[in-house]
Amino acid sequence: MAIMGDSVLSIVIASLAGILTDVAYAWLRPDPEERLTNYRLFAMCAPMLLFLVYFLVLQFATPTGVIWTIHLSAGSIVVSGLLGLLLTYLIKPPAIKQG
């Protein structure tokens, strides 16, 4: 569909982001039971990598580049990572100490 719609950049973006996310997964080896910190870090890194690759590919592969300011672009990358991190607290909340 991307080839028919002339949006080949979406294939490049998804491929690069997927490869980088796989590398991050292999490096961090997240596990919600044993490696909770790595699990939370991976959940933060995955969306950040996607948006980072998205903005980098658009900047260098399109004639106009990214028309947003650097503050808006970087902020959207950081916010996506923070939302991924916060979602892990819904999935695996911290233990409550009894007593």
Distance between the termini: 58 Å
The succession of helices and strands, N to C, reads HHH
Quote the average pLDDT: 91
The share of residues in helices is 55-70%
- Largest sheet properties: none
Counting DSSP H or I runs of 4 or more residues, the number of helices is: 3
- Give me the secondary-structure category: mainly alpha
The counted number of beta strands is 0
Transmembrane segments: 6-28, 40-61, 67-91
Keywords: Membrane, Transmembrane, Transmembrane helix
Polypeptide structure, described:
With 99 residues, the protein is mainly alpha-helical. It has one domain (8-91). 70% of the residues lie in helices and 0% in strands. Helix 2 (36-61) packs antiparallel against helix 3 (70-91). The protein is elongated and about 60 Å long. The N and C termini lie far apart (58 Å). The model has no long low-confidence stretch (mean pLDDT 91).
Write a concise keyword list for the protein shown above.
3 helices, membrane, transmembrane, transmembrane helix, mainly alpha, 99 residues
Write the layout of secondary structure elements.
Layout: H1 8-28, H2 36-61, H3 70-91
Transmembrane segments: 6-28, 40-61, 67-91
Keywords: Membrane, Transmembrane, Transmembrane helix
What would a concise description of this structure say?
Helix content is 70%, strand content 0%. It has helices at residues 8-28, 36-61, 70-91.
